[in-house]
Design goal:
Layout (H helix, E strand, L loop, with lengths): L5 H9 L8 E3 L2 H10 L8 E5 H15 L2 H8 L3 H16 L10 H11 L4 H27 L3 H19 L6 H16 L3 H10 L4 H4 L5 H15 L5 H28 L7 H23 L5 E5 L4 E5 L1
Antiparallel strand pairs: 1-2, 2-4, 3-4
The structure holds 2-acetamido-2-deoxy-beta-D-glucopyranose (3 copies).
Keywords: Signal
């Protein structure tokens, strides 16, 4: 169940996923000190960033993409109710039970209600809105897939079923399960005729570079996955490396595009008190992620809210 804290997750989970607000900065003093004392080549770096910029980014992201009703419903709860839900969510996502892949959305909602009984009805309203939002995206995807050639519909359904089966049985570590479940799904992807791939590329141009490029990087990687599952190794290592580099370059370009789209997206306008509460909560969650980083033994984390600088160094 990945959807309940959609805006909280944006903040907690992906603070580290967007490296671009970070400014890389040489820390020459420590390099010199290390060089003097040791022959060992040392690596040293530090990052600092403006807390206010990071917060601005996440507030913009949330106001651009999360349904206004969801934001408003949550932030119109009292402070203590908001805090209760955030704490309960943190507890659940940190506990082992959350890792159990068979935990259903309804179970998660019930656990949250049990932890915060005063907000039970608001939690249900939020859960219903989030489910509706999720269904809307799922429906858009299905509408798209339904216009595709039969070979693509079949491969999509096979892959989806295989992943569901593996999830339900915790099968990703089980070679037999991978062989009988995932390999046939991967093979059905490989067997999509070129003309059908071209149809897909025409309708989803962002996929074109990996679907129809001369290099065939995607099919090299699919074959590599099949080889790894069947034999534990690949025989064409150089080719696989090249394909991975191609795909990596593609993903980096896509990420740039995504970040640029986010930057230019129109924000929803919120009631002033909700807007203020959203900023506050996002700021708190970012500060919390930095506190988590401070627990990592080899990182030095310096939080200076007055001067708006958050610094990490090794
Ligand atoms: C979260 O977990 C802590 C310790 O396990 C517990 O004391 C606290 O009551 C829990 N909070 C919520 C909101 O469930
Ligand atoms: C989920 O799976 C675990 C281990 O596979 C099992 O112990 C637990 O009872 C299951 N929970 C539900 C609700 O099915
Ligand atoms: C691995 O998967 C196979 C096929 O699904 C199953 O029969 C077997 O019990 C699984 N082994 C383990 C250790 O879960």
């Amino acid at each position: 169940m990945q959807t309940f804290g959609i805006f909280v997750i944006f903040v907690i989970g992906s603070t580290l996923a967007f490296p671009w607000p970070w400014k890389r900065q040489a820390s020459e003093n420590s390099v010199q000190a290390d060089d003097a004392g040791s022959n060992w080549p040392s690596v040293s770096f530090s990052f600092d960033l403006k807390f206010s910029k990071l917060r601005k980014f996440y507030v913009h992201l949330t106001k651009s993409y999360v349904d206004v009703d969801i934001i408003t419903t949550f932030f119109q709860l009292s402070d203590s109710e908001q805090q209760c839900i955030l704490n309960a969510w943190d507890n659940m996502t940190n506990s082992n039970s959350y890792q159990t892949p068979n935990q259903t959305a309804a179970e998660v909602v019930n656990q949250l209600k049990a932890a915060c009984p005063n907000s039970a009805s608001a939690i249900q309203v939020l859960a219903d809105k989030i489910t509706a939002e999720k269904d809307r995206y799922a429906q858009q995807y299905m509408n798209f897939i339904n216009t595709m050639p039969q070979s693509i519909k079949d491969a999509d359904a096979k892959l989806w079923n295989a992943l569901q089966t593996l999830n339900a049985n915790d099968g990703y570590q089980n070679q037999t399960a991978l062989k009988i479940t995932l390999v046939p799904a991967l093979e059905s992807l490989q067997h999509i005729p070129q003309a059908d791939l071209q149809t897909l590329a025409n309708n989803a141009p962002f996929l074109a570079p990996i679907l129809t490029g001369n290099s065939g990087s995607l099919s090299v990687l699919i074959q590599a996955a099949i080889d790894m599952i069947n034999n534990g190794k690949v025989t064409n290592e150089a080719e696989v490396k090249q394909a991975m580099q191609d795909i990596w370059r593609y993903l980096k370009n896509e990420l740039k595009q995504v970040l640029s789209d986010i930057d230019h997206h129109t924000e929803a306008s919120l009631p002033a008190n909700v807007d203020q509460a959203l900023k506050q909560t996002i700021g708190n969650q970012i500060a919390k992620s930095f506190q988590q980083l401070a627990k990592i033994p080899f990182l030095t984390v310096n939080i200076d809210q007055n001067n708006d600088v958050y610094e990490i160094s090794v």
